[in-house]
Amino acid sequence: MAQSTIPLSALSAQWHSENGAPPPRRLIAADSTLRADVAYRLACEGTALLWHGDYPDALRLLSAMRRRAERRRSRSAPTTHDSPAEAFHRHRRERARLARVLGMLLVPLDADRRIRLDRAPDVRAACLAAYGPFLDSRILSLRELLGVIGAHQWRLKGVEVPALGARIHPHYGVFSPVRGEYVDLVARAPLPPAVHDHPLAHDLGTGTGVLAAVLAKRGLGPVLVTDTNPRALACAEDNARRLGLADRIRSAGTSLYPPGGDRAALVVCNPPWLPHRPSSALEHGVYDPGGRMLTGFLDGLAARLLPGGEGWLVLSDLAELLGLRTRADLLTAIAAAGLRVRGRLDTRPRHPRASRPNPADPLHGARARETTSLWRLAPA
């Protein structure tokens, strides 16, 4: 194939990236005549490939590029001499590089949300659910589009939550409650005395609304939910309607705490567990830069609790095992916020990444030793 550079000014489609990636500086038209080795080299050099072949060939090329990237990643994997923190940071750098390189294979999307490629699937419903309506053509990475398709399938199918006896349906860009052990902690922790007279609760950073639903099922309400991600608030409202709990769960906006200063008998927060910068919208459910959400929750808690109320902090010790935070750091932050620990419930992870040895996962050792805790906090 003759490779011709396409100036961005010549394109009539808008660049689209949910992760905020800038538009590529160089584009070449690509089809099935482009060899995978060449495609991978160009992507590593920062040249984007705007696909003009058929859709299945684009998937095959993306897989071939991934295999080449994985081979390079194995050569730069953490060594036995790395500390847990060094292994984590090396792992994150390689994941970011992998995302950047694979994100260079682009596909065109029409204003009616159809992929302009032969033998392409119908992605209109998935794109409408993720992006909403738009009136112009778009260019986006095939990798992102596959994420949109996969997220829509999760949304339609839902995730079974035993603590609810029902399914939760995650929306695009909202972290899915696939790790049920932390939900079980909230379902079985003893409720504080204040809920008997004042059953108002707050769920901060609600995500899908799964913890708010558990609290509502336990008789609390209204449960005011917040999240910095508007998609999460819409997702929580959708799940509340599906579960018949819309009258007990209310959206309270995108601030950490609900505005107005109302006190609650119970304030629950399951912040992202790792104090590190996220590289995508979905990773905001895992990474909390500098521990800002954790600190904000602790510092504001005492002033938001009714007498006899509690704050429940649901947090993994994975950051401690990786050397990103110490237990002393956490306890110091709790004390500095004028709080004391009234009790703690612990559980071990049940997900396959913790139980099945995986030599390719440099963080497996830490995952296998991980403990998730529900810290019952009260004013000192």
Automatic annotation (TrEMBL):
<feature type="region of interest" description="Disordered">
    <location>
        <begin position="70"/>
        <end position="90"/>
    </location>
</feature>
<feature type="domain" description="Methyltransferase small">
    <location>
        <begin position="201"/>
        <end position="274"/>
    </location>
</feature>
<dbReference type="InterPro" id="IPR050320">
    <property type="entry name" value="N5-glutamine_MTase"/>
</dbReference>
<dbReference type="GO" id="GO:0036009">
    <property type="term" value="F:protein-glutamine N-methyltransferase activity"/>
</dbReference>
<dbReference type="InterPro" id="IPR029063">
    <property type="entry name" value="SAM-dependent_MTases_sf"/>
</dbReference>
<dbReference type="Pfam" id="PF05175">
    <property type="entry name" value="MTS"/>
</dbReference>
<keyword id="KW-0808">Transferase</keyword>
<feature type="region of interest" description="Disordered">
    <location>
        <begin position="345"/>
        <end position="380"/>
    </location>
</feature>
<dbReference type="GO" id="GO:0032259">
    <property type="term" value="P:methylation"/>
</dbReference>
<dbReference type="InterPro" id="IPR007848">
    <property type="entry name" value="Small_mtfrase_dom"/>
</dbReference>
<protein>
    <submittedName>
        <fullName>Methylase</fullName>
    </submittedName>
</protein>
<keyword id="KW-0489">Methyltransferase</keyword>
